[in-house]
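agent: user wants the full assembly modeled, not chains individually. Plan: 1) parse entity lines 2) check alphabet per entity 3) run joint structure prediction 4) return tokens. Steps 1-2 passed, four entities, 462 residues total. Proceeding.
--- entities ---
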Amino acid sequence: MEIQGLPGRVLDELGPAIASGEIPEGAVLRGEDLEGRFGVSRTVVREAVRILEGMRLVASRRRVGITVQPKSLWDVFDPMVIRWRLAGADRPAQLRSLGSLRVAVEPAAAALAASHATDDDRRELSSLAVELTVAAREADLTTFLGYDIAFHALVLRASGNEMFAHLGDTVGAVLTGRTEYHLMPHQPEPYAIRLHREVADAICGGDAAHAERAMRTIVTGALEELNLQLD
Amino acid sequence: MEIQGLPGRVLDELGPAIASGEIPEGAVLRGEDLEGRFGVSRTVVREAVRILEGMRLVASRRRVGITVQPKSLWDVFDPMVIRWRLAGADRPAQLRSLGSLRVAVEPAAAALAASHATDDDRRELSSLAVELTVAAREADLTTFLGYDIAFHALVLRASGNEMFAHLGDTVGAVLTGRTEYHLMPHQPEPYAIRLHREVADAICGGDAAHAERAMRTIVTGALEELNLQLD
DNA sequence: ATCGCCTCAAAGATATGACGTATTCAAGTG
DNA sequence: CACTTGAATACGTCATATCTTTGAGGCGAT
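--- prediction returned ---
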């Protein structure tokens, strides 16, 4: 998942600093300064900067330096950018954006999954729904989080749409972030749990409309709760 | 938009070759071979490869080489990857994926726009809806395409969600691709045009439900038409 | 005083040689 | 046959040299 080697380490410090806004839009970095700051060679700095350039976080121009691009140009769907922003000061805004994205995508994915899921997918989905219920009843939040992430990722994957499928990790990051943010509340809401089972049953039974409706209830609920927390 | 310099030129050839499947998953490239093939130095090849690595199209391992990653790992939301796939053999699959994504996202964006759009947004949206109608009536497909792209991009931007906003260019690429694919059909459907005006009016009037419904009709219609064309 | 051109220097872009290091594959050994 | 070991390989990193672009300041003419 991570970028390897020294450029990766440069990236791990520079990326979050830019994505969080600590290094503001319009700021200019000099390659030579970065060499000194990280104690690495030109080669390494250049490769790290190239990757940031690929994400449109920075642009490099002769005679000027490496300038941080305006946020509106960033590749906000890049998993690394999302992770960096979730870890920094932009976290509330990023959670809100992702919340709306989930509301848009996950119901559609659930509907598609009802007709596209393989038999294995359906079996695993049922199984996950059961384990989810058990973990919730036992108030085992860590285990619950794991199953919840797996559940949503599976629905996205089972939709048969590769773009939806790739949002699985991102949704996982949101759920993790949310659990951390709430500082581990007592217990997942029983109603939300029942909805997860409903989604699983509807997908297994091929009922697209029902799957979509139940999933929409889940994600809109999550978004409302999020907005309450963030205000 | 493009990556500058020699790495950019390497990327322009290597990226499409990988994204289109011409260089298949699992294939191994050697840095030294690439130097010869493109007539550039190690530096340049390495930087280009780093960018591809950032998109998860390839992974570089010692003693092995640069291996093309399985498609399931690609950053399918990266605008460059999308463009490359739309230009190559993967075009039908990419259009289908994007079609479903549009169905999920654009209605949600329209609903949000109804409450989040600025006055300027609303004015411009109305104006675009009118110009769209005129261009359609005159069967001026090129002009129509331009306004259509601007219309959908504006709705996405006016939603106030940065992630939705960033799909504007992608949707534009889809619309362009669709127009090219159809080899310029006679005339945009009058019904679809009326729906665009409905979306604009609903957003201007703050009617989120109506905007969402009309937009959903537009994008589901586009998806159905696309599926007809691709079968 | 303003405009335009010219020169120079700053900073990235590219090329190249040298060396480091992980990884694979195969030969060798018990 | 399993395990160890060593050498070959291809990427990783560093250092240096040179090229290219471009911004800023100076200079002169109008």
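agent: reporting back. The radius of gyration of chain A is 20 Å. Strands of chain A lie at 28-29, 58-61, 65-68.
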